[in-house]
């Protein structure tokens, strides 16, 4: 019978005759069980003939009973009454009873000879009018003495070794207590099977698997499911949740102590420092087959302190790490990896429908809106849960309004989870991420690399690789940069929050309304670094007015990209800080006369006159730069000339 440990208040109830063993064996047994993490109740204060109801409740709420028989046990009528109640309760409910015969032969208990005969001689006289009670006591002693138990006789060995055998036997009778996974899951079984295949559970090697993916994708849920599925195949196991947060709050030494406590079953382990903790883990676990799961690891130091090497653990051990950072785990040697993918449309729709419609019956009026939510949530379970909870019970119009609001401003609990990966980036990586999510989604990767090199003056490929490793951006099969919608919205919100009410004080502008407001009213500031305007999807757009008077107020504008937008006239001025200038339908045959193009690295002006004086100057200036820079500008000039040809056949 598989009893769940969590259904009992106490793991073990110990009863004994106090005068014989209280300050020796019974006390040491209680201490050893408690140190192993076994919740143990000791009946240490009960006296008299009557059993208190509170004590009976404790017995009812205990999973295992340990009855310590000693030479003088039978003299206590209280102990005998308690024995009868324990037998009646535990045998009826198929619970475990462990008799311990401490320096007394089991036969003496079974047949009530020796000191037990002396005790019952007194009981027969005292309870001569209640012979049934004494008969029950005798029967109980006979029954319990026939159960499998433990016998200790002074001189046959060390008492501490005897106690350890009892503790091991008690521990082995506890089923694995499963960790909570989630209230409702979809698509979990297939992922679970895939991870178990990577774990090769039949191998005696020490194997590691890294589970990685963006925040909210379900890494922790998957790790918990693995723990519940395979945990009973290991001698020792430990699931350390949220290593990142807990190490920041309590320190890594605390996590080392917790790891050891759970693995070896000892409470109050205090290693003192990380070095001693490492030694303790290696020494105590090097021969054990362990399952160790570290959830949400974000630094190499955490891995080195908690999982310094595979030789720390015994044959057949498995170590599983979850992290947002693919690169971190690869560096530490976790060769087997599993990326948690987004839910497919069908699974995402099932999870969302379960969250929104409590009865599981989908109202057909919401079908299109459900698909819209699934697309917006990008298959991220956390997003589906959060959005679903916000939409449950609302009308169709309220759904539309809420979704419009979310697309402009993601819910805080989603934003906070996703932004953790952003916060872990260094400053240059953050800048590259914001550039891409705000302005360059859907661009060819090669174009993004060129633009970023022009903006920052150095190759940013490594930074892009970091963003990919952290699952913040993806590269599609056709080579385009494609952040998930939720990730894209997170990046945009970060920039909007720089100045919620005044777009002119933000670092990047991409909303048409914001750009028109800033340019038309000359509200540009030194904060603006990129202006990216693409009106290819807008029909019958009105002409935008910009005289460029505020160019001097934008000395940090590095990138100006305007695609398929109609301006009433060309600006009189352009910022000399520009490094990338791309302007389709530029409304003039030449650039402003006082524009200094020396800093330009990329220039695309598809409808300007062929080799205008400005372009001639652009080429001449390039010659004075380094050979690499010159070649780069030649390439972009060639691209520019080709774009002119393409433009002639393109009708706006």
UniProtKB/TrEMBL annotation:
It comes from Pisum sativum. One of its GO terms (biological process) is defense response. Pfam families: NB-ARC, TIR, WHD_ROQ1. It comes from the Eukaryota. This is TIR domain-containing protein. The chain crosses the membrane at residues 628-647. PANTHER family: LEUCINE-RICH REPEAT-CONTAINING PROTEIN, NB-ARC DOMAIN PROTEIN. Residues 8-174 form the TIR domain. Keywords: Leucine-rich repeat, Membrane, NAD, Plant defense, Repeat, Transmembrane, Transmembrane helix. InterPro entries: Apaf_helical (IPR042197), Disease_R_plants (IPR044974), NB-ARC (IPR002182), P-loop_NTPase (IPR027417), TIR_dom (IPR000157), Toll_tir_struct_dom_sf (IPR035897), WH_DNA-bd_sf (IPR036390), WHD_ROQ1-like (IPR058192). One of its GO terms (molecular function) is ADP binding.
């Amino acid at each position: 019978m598989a009893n769940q440990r969590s259904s009992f208040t106490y793991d073990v109830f110990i009863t004994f005759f106090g005068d014989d063993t209280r300050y020796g064996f019974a006390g040491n047994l209680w201490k050893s069980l408690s140190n192993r993490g076994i919740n143990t109740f000791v009946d240490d204060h009960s006296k008299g003939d009557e059993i208190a109801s509170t004590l009976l409740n404790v017995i009812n709420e205990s999973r295992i009973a340990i009855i310590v028989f000693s030479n003088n046990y039978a003299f206590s009528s209280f102990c005998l009454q308690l024995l009868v109640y324990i037998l009646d309760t535990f045998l009826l409910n198929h619970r475990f009873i462990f008799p311990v015969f401490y320096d007394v032969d089991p036969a003496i208990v079974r047949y009530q000879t020796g000191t037990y005969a002396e005790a019952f001689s007194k009981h027969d006289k005292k309870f001569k009018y209640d012979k049934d009670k004494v008969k029950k006591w005798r029967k109980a002693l006979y029954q319990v003495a026939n159960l499998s138990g433990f016998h200790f006789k002074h001189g046959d060995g060390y008492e501490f070794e005897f106690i350890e055998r009892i503790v091991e036997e008690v521990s082995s009778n506890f089923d694995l207590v499963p960790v909570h996974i989630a209230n409702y899951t979809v698509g979990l079984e297939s992922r679970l099977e895939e991870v178990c295949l990577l774990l090769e559970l039949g191998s005696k090697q020490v194997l590691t698997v890294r589970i990685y993916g963006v925040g909210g994708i379900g890494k922790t849920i998957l790790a918990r499911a693995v723990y519940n599925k395979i945990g009973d195949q290991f001698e020792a196991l430990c699931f350390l949740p949220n290593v990142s947060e807990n190490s920041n709050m309590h320190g890594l030494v605390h996590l080392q102590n917790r790891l050891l406590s759970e693995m070896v079953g000892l409470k109050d382990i205090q290693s003192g420092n990380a070095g001693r903790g490492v030694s303790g883990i290696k020494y105590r676990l090097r021969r054990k087959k362990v399952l160790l799961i570290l959830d949400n690891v974000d630094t190499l130091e955490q891995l080195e302190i908690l999982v310094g090497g595979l030789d720390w653990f015994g044959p057949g051990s498995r170590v599983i790490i979850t992290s947002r950072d693919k690169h971190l785990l690869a560096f530490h040697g976790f060769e087997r990896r599993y990326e948690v993918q987004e839910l497919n449309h069908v699974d995402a729709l099932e999870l969302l429908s379960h969250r929104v419609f409590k009865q599981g019956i989908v109202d057909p009026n919401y079908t299109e809106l459900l698909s819209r939510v699934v697309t917006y949530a990008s298959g991220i379970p956390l997003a589906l849960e959060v959005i679903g909870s916000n939409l449950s019970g609302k009308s169709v119009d309220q759904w539309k309004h809420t979704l419009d609001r979310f697309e402009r401003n993601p819910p805080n609990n989603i934003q906070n989870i996703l932004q953790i990966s952003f916060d872990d980036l260094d400053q240059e990586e953050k800048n590259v991420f914001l550039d891409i999510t705000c302005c360059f989604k859907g661009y060819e990767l090669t174009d993004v690399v060129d633009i970023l090199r022009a903006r920052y003056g150095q190759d940013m490929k490594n930074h892009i690789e970091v963003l990919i490793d952290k699952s913040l951006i993806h590269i599609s099969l056709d080579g385009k940069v494609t952040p998930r919608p939720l990730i894209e919205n997170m990046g945009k919100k970060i920039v909007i929050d720089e100045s919620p009410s005044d777009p002119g004080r933000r670092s990047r502008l991409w909303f048409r309304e914001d750009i028109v407001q800033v340019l038309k009213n000359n509200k540009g500031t030194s904060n603006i670094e990129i202006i990216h305007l693409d009106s290819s999807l807008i029909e019958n757009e009105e002409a935008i007015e910009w005289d460029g008077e505020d160019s001097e107020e934008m000395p940090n504008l590095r990138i100006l990209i305007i695609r398929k937008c109609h301006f009433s006239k060309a600006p009189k001025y352009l910022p000399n800080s520009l490094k990338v200038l791309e302007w389709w339908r530029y409304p003039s045959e030449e650039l402003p006369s006082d524009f200094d193009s020396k800093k330009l690295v990329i220039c695309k002006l598809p409808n300007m006159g062929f080799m205008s004086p400005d372009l001639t100057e652009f080429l001449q200036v390039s010659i004075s730069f380094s050979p690499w820079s010159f070649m780069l500008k030649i390439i972009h000039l060639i691209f520019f000339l080709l774009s002119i040809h393409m433009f002639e056949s393109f009708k706006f």
